[in-house]
Every structure is written in C-alpha cells, then in structure tokens.
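[agent] plan:
  1. take the single chain provided in the ticket
  2. run structure prediction with default settings
  3. attach structure tokens to the ticket
  4. add a short note for the reviewer (M.T.)
[agent] executing step 1
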Amino acid sequence: MTALLTAEFRKVTTLRFWWMLGLAPLVVGMFSSAITLPVMRAFTDAFEADPGDANLVATLFGLAVALALVILFAALFGAVNVGTEFRYKTLTTTFLTARGRDGVIGAKLGVTAAFGFFYCLVVEVVSVALLLTFGGEGFAVRGSLFAMLGAALLCATLWALLGGGVSMLTGSSVGSTIALVVWYTLGEMILRSILGGIGLGSVGGILPVSATLGTVANAAAGNEIDWLTLWPTAPLALLVWTAVFVAGGWACTRQRDIT
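[agent] step 2 finished; step 3 output follows
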C-alpha cells in the first residue's frame, strides 16, 4: 500500500494542476478582503465608527470567501485527479501494474483526501495570519474560530473525496468538474428553492452544500443558526453524501471496462 500511495503522490506532484487549484482560492480570498476594505471604511467613516472594525470585517469576509472557495476547489482537485486517469487512459496501466483495483482506488482516494485537507490548511494558516495582522484589537483568537476552521478542514477533505467519487461514477474529469461547479454555485440553491416551495425545505437542508454551510457555521459552541442545518445532522449528512458517491464510484470503477 505504501508503494501505491507513493506512486499516487508522485503522479500529483509531477503535474501543475495541484498547486494551481490550491492557489486560486487563496488569491481570491485576499482580493476579497482588499475589495471589501474600502467599502467598510466608507461605512465606518459615515457612521463615525472605529476604523479598526472595517479591517476586521474585511478580513473576516476574505476568510469566508477563501473557505467557501477552497472547499469547492478541493472537490475540483478530486474530480481532476481521479478523472484524468480515465481521460488519458492511464488507469489501464496503473491497474495492470498493481495486484488489484481496490488498492489503486484506495490509494488514489487517500492521496486525494490528503490534498483536500492540505489545501484548506494552507488557506486557513494564511487567512488567520492576515486576521492577526490586519484585524486590529477587535480580533481575538478564540475557541469558536478554531472549531469553525476545524470543521472547514473536515468539509474540504470530504468534498475532495466526493469530487473523486463523482469522477469515478462518470469516468470524465471535464464533465465532473462542470457538474460540481454548477451544483456548488447554483444547482443546489435552485433545487432547495423548489423543495422549499413544495413544503420540503427540511430536505433541502441536508443537501451537500447546505450541509457544508451548517457544518462550518454551526461548529462553534453557541452558534445555532437555525436556517442552516445544525450539528450533528450537518456533518453526518455531508458524510453520507460523500460515502454514497465514493461507494458508487468505487463499485463502477471495479466493474468498468478500461481497455
């Protein structure tokens, strides 16, 4: 298993897509803070509030944007990392050089999950450093922040696996990537609106994106945003979605003709 994990890790690090996908949410999050800051300063000037509040709000907004994006990009990494093997038909060689398909799939998903975790960890370290630098006296490192950051790490790891599961189901990195972006940005919101309109709003709360929002936002003790799914339902729902896609993709890949 160690040899398979090493091989999968080298496959990722010898290509450029892994750091490009990790860099994008970090840069966008920083730019979000830079764009938000002058807006918030205009508000603090107009209401004669503490200018430090503008720095704090802008930096927190950048952290929220960066976390939302890094979870999406972790899913895209999973879809690209797994789907590329189908696209370039390298999975055939990989399976032939290993003892069985299960070991290869397990190693690939293990590396995928590790990179999803790593993406989120880097974004969080940089974002917290920015908060400490520009947040001013209004920012204090509390346990609630660490709870939410820990929940985001869990979500990024699960979404990386979910993205890999989608690619194993479809056998296409491009199609899976498009599907994930559409679902994450608009698809689930539209479906949730429809479900709410027919009286099934509670079902919409356990869909993957909604469960992710509930997992992160309600992670801290005392945070009970009731229009988002609460703990432990939120993380359990996301875990179930991940297990469904990974198990379905794993079963399809075991049976799929890859010649």
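[agent] step 4 note for reviewer: Residues 101 and 254 are 6 Å apart (CA to CA).
[agent] ticket updated
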